[in-house]
Design a protein that fits this description.
Blueprint (H helix, E strand, L loop, with lengths): L10 H14 L5 H13 L1 H38 L17 H12 L4 H8 L3 E2 L6 E4 L5 E4 L4 E5 L5 E7 L1 E5 L7 E5 L2 E5 L3 E7 L2 E8 L1 E5 L7 E4 L2 E6 L2 E2 L3 E2 L2 H4 L6 E8 H9 L5 E4 L2 H5 L1 E7 L3 H12 L3 E4 L3 E4 L1
Parallel strand pairs: 5-7, 17-20
Antiparallel strand pairs: 1-4, 2-3, 3-6, 4-5, 6-9, 7-8, 8-11, 9-10, 10-13, 11-12, 13-14, 13-15, 16-18, 19-20
Length: about 325
């Protein structure tokens, strides 16, 4: 009995399959159906690509539409920030827009078209790309190590050294000059004179981790300051801060050496970190899967290796589309 090798579609064939899937879900003409049949029979890889597209359609419609809506809002914000004429309505993704268009949008965003990043970067002085950990030296000889996909703006002109964290995370090694050194993130800030610490943006707030020295953290201008010392961490958001607590700061900050360490972290949190190191999109479809706990130490340079390792332990399915979208379920 002859065994037929499974064919692997090219990215172009996968994209064509998604386009056909979109067309066939939108009242195709008789001519369209005939052309599709001819395309499907022309190459075994076409049939494989179309089968994969059908699976992805079923898996991904809801999260893809959500991401498409988010990027439409980000694009409008980008246009506004550039002082271009506002459109009367935001870009909308109506029910008539098929799943393939949403997937194609996400792929294009993963390859560089990301309005939200552009907004963050408009006023930034230093930026790191996805997958890039970058160290920069400021005018006062303080050093900032930017985690992957991060951005900061720097202003030393008003009697204090002021840094705004616009995206991602930064590790600060501050030189003592006598002038205050302040890192603003969301509505709060971390204020120091000489120390080593990290500030990391989180949904609706930020987290501060101290490696050495002392840092005063306030959740907003009217909040009471909390003093953190080496090995302590605090998170804040929406004008209030959590209670500070001890952490293994060396383990927490191991991303500077290319490692991501977790102890009973949710898969959703791990994926959120991996997104900064992956040039496309990673989507978790199952809420129960997203909440499952992960412990371990993983290399940050290759998110796909990390996901494959977790897949072997946790047993989820992993689908990759056009080389830039990873779907977990």
């Amino acid at each position: 009995m002859k065994v037929t090798d499974r064919v692997t579609p090219t990215p172009a064939q996968e994209q064509a399959a998604l386009a056909w899937l979109s067309l066939l879900h939108d009242r195709p003409s008789t001519g369209d159906q005939l052309t599709f049949s001819q395309w499907l029979r022309a190459d075994p890889a076409h049939a494989e690509a179309y089968a994969q597209a059908q699976v992805l359609w079923e898996l991904s419609e809801s999260p893809a539409r959500t991401l498409a809506d988010e990027e439409a809002l980000a694009l409008q914000g980008f246009l506004n920030a550039m002082d271009r004429p506002r459109r009367s309505t935001l870009l909308r993704w109506s029910g008539a827009l098929a799943m393939a268009a949403c997937l194609t949008l996400m792929i294009s965003l993963g390859t560089g078209w990301q309005p939200q990043r552009w907004i963050d970067d408009l006023g930034a002085d230093y930026v790191s790309a996805p997958g890039e950990v970058r160290t920069v030296t400021l005018a006062d000889q303080s050093q900032v190590t930017l985690d992957a996909d991060s951005a900061i703006a720097v202003d030393f002109s008003h009697g204090e050294r002021h840094v705004q964290l616009r995206r991602g995370a930064g590790f600060f090694s501050v030189t003592h000059t006598g002038d205050p050194f302040v890192v603003a993130a969301e509505k709060g800030e971390a204020r120091v004179l000489g120390t080593q610490f990290e500030v990391r943006l989180q949904p609706g707030g930020a987290q501060v981790t101290v490696l050495s020295g002392r840092v005063g953290v306030t959740a907003d201008r009217n909040a009471q300051q909390q003093i953190l010392t080496a090995g302590q961490q605090v998170a804040y958001g929406q004008g209030s801060a959590e209670k500070l607590h001890p952490v293994d700061s060396e383990a927490q900050l191991a991303w500077r050496q290319g490692w991501l360490n977790y102890y009973k972290a949710s898969l959703a949190d791990v994926v959120e970190d991996l997104r900064r190191y992956y040039p496309g999109r990673i989507v978790v479809l199952n809420d129960e899967l997203a909440a499952r706990k992960v412990s371990g130490s993983f290399p940050s340079k290759d998110p796909q290796v990390v996901l494959s390792s977790l897949q072997g332990v946790m047993g989820f399915e992993q689908h990759q589309v056009l080389g830039h979208l990873i779907i977990l379920r």
